[in-house]
Write a structure and sequence with these properties.
Strands 2, 4, 5, 6, 9, 10 and 11 form a seven-stranded mixed sheet that branches. The protein has a four-stranded antiparallel sheet with strand order 1-3-8-7, with no helix packed on it. The chain has 115 residues and is an all-beta fold. The model has no long low-confidence stretch (mean pLDDT 95). The termini are far apart. Helices cover 0% and strands 55% of the residues. The protein has no helices and eleven strands.
Length: 115
């Protein structure tokens, strides 16, 4: 059974930093592509950042230079370091894993940025 468990969400002020974590189980983490998506109220789910099993990364234009995705294969965990947070970063953030072509999702963690 595949499980992706996100943690680290919260209520932040503009300019703050936050690190999200996603612990994976039930997949061969080291060969899985991992990603973070987000969904703001009234909007569709969008890709924020992704990292391949070879550590190649991809970012949405809106977060380039502010967010960093990384992975620790020894801990089966993927991280999203978010700096210089803006109110428009407010969303539910979801962890995603692609394992043998199958997509898996975490339950989501809320990030709210407001003054």
């Amino acid at each position: 059974q595949v499980q992706l468990v996100e943690s680290g969400g919260g209520f932040l002020q503009p300019g703050d930093s936050l690190r999200l974590s996603c612990a994976a189980s039930g997949i061969i983490f080291s060969i899985s592509a991992m990603g973070w998506y987000r969904q703001a109220p009234g909007k569709g789910r969008e890709l924020v950042a992704a990292i391949t099993n070879g550590d190649s990364t991809n970012y949405a234009d809106s977060v380039k230079g502010r967010f960093t995705i990384s992975r620790d294969n020894a801990k089966n965990t993927v991280y999203l370091q978010m700096n210089s947070l803006k109110p428009e970063d407010t969303a539910v953030y979801y962890c995603n894993a692609v394992d043998y072509g199958v997509n898996y999702w975490g339950q989501g963690t809320q990030v709210t940025v407001s003054s």
